[in-house]
Amino acid sequence: MINRILLDENALRGGARNENPDKIGLNIRWQLYYSIFEIRAKSYQAFQKNSWALRQFFSILCTPGLAAQSHDCDLDLTYNSRSMFTSLMENAMKIRTLLQLACLVLPATLSATPYDHIHLAADNAFEAAQWYAKHFGGTPTRFRDSSDTSLPIDRVRMGDIYVIFYERDPGEGSVGSGVDHIGFSLPNVAEVFGAVVADGGTALGELRAFNGMALGFIEDPWGTKIELIDDAELRGAHHIHLATPDPAATLAWYQDTFKGESAQFGGALPGVHFGNIWVLAAQAQGEIAPTIGRSMDHLGWSFPDLDAAAVEMKAKGVVFSAEPRDFRDIRISFVEGPDGVRIEVVQP
């Protein structure tokens, strides 16, 4: 990753054409965020969640001793946009070196493989996409947000994650498979809970609280179990909750295969944080069935170079059930996760 770190000076200078100096700083922060860390998170909120690490890192480096060697070490990643822009232009090589070092200390979520999609099944994909968008937010759309009306509207875009629907018999529900449920974070859990139950969903118990966050469980009309939770730190698609005989080993597999940060959600639940979604794991009760063919069919991560990623994953012992191949204008493949969880790995 360090070899790919480049400061696109021309792109940064392009920010100077903005009339508002605050926009200059915002443009610079976005350029740094995308070109250096290659993160697909497309919201300023996602950047803010990690910007503290950048500020802390530079504040540590900008000590009097270092300043004597590197002159005016006045780097600023806050809202002093004009001085920040000037500093970036005058200290490009210094910043490049600092950013190379920063890759060693920034949160692991910045190097995580971006989570891409959740693939469910429904007997009518269009209706399912509309239902999910109505209750959980997002925008119903087509493959790669295409405007081609010959393609079906069979998915919902929630930020940079898609919930996609196979149009088929959903078969058995998610419970009993390696993916027990999926979760969405909303500020109005009670309201959505009631609306879902009134619109074909099924309540699974009563509303409750976890670590100060309201939550409740429902089942969608096609059999997938869903957790609604009010986590202000991550909205939209929130988590995937696995069921496994060995939660620690399963989470270690996901962390090793797709990077991410091993952490505890809510200070209590072990998981892996991928920046835009959590993967959690609970002790399975009884035998676990594969996900393929059920209402929760598979998970999906994306790589900028699928073939290179496949070589790396195979070296770790990851089993491919379908080798990388072209599909429309992307590349796709499938791997076997622990406990029969089907996983698609794609190159957009």
Q: How far apart are the first and last residues' alpha carbons, in Å?
A: 19 Å
What's the mean pLDDT score?
Answer: 80
Indicate the proportion of strand residues.
Answer: 25-35%
- Spell the H/E element sequence: HHHHHHEHEEEEHEEEEEHEEEEHEEE
> What is the count of distinct domains?
2
Helical residue percent band: 25-40%
Architecture of the largest domain, CATH level 2? Roll
Helix and strand content put the structural class at alpha+beta
Form type: globular
Low-confidence stretches: 1-81, 101-106
Describe, in plain words, how this protein is organized in 3D.
This protein has 348 residues and is an alpha+beta fold. It folds into 2 domains: 2-106, no CATH class; 115-347, 2,3-Dihydroxybiphenyl 1,2-Dioxygenase, domain 1 (Roll). It has 10 helices and 17 strands. The chain has helices at 9-14, 21-37, 44-61, 64-70, 81-90, 92-102, 125-136, 189-198, 247-258, 306-315; strands spanning 115-122, 139-141, 155-158, 161-167, 179-185, 202-203, 208-210, 213-219, 225-229, 236-244, 261-265, 269-273, 278-283, 296-302, 320-327, 330-336, 342-347. The strands form 2 sheets. Strands 5, 6, 7, 8, 9, 10, 11, 12 and 13 form a 9-stranded mixed β-sheet that branches. An 8-stranded mixed β-sheet has the order 2-3-4-1-14-17-16-15. Strand 16 and strand 17 form a beta hairpin. Helix 2 packs across helix 5. The longest helix has 18 residues, at 44-61. The protein is globular. Mean pLDDT is 80; it is low at 1-81 and 101-106.
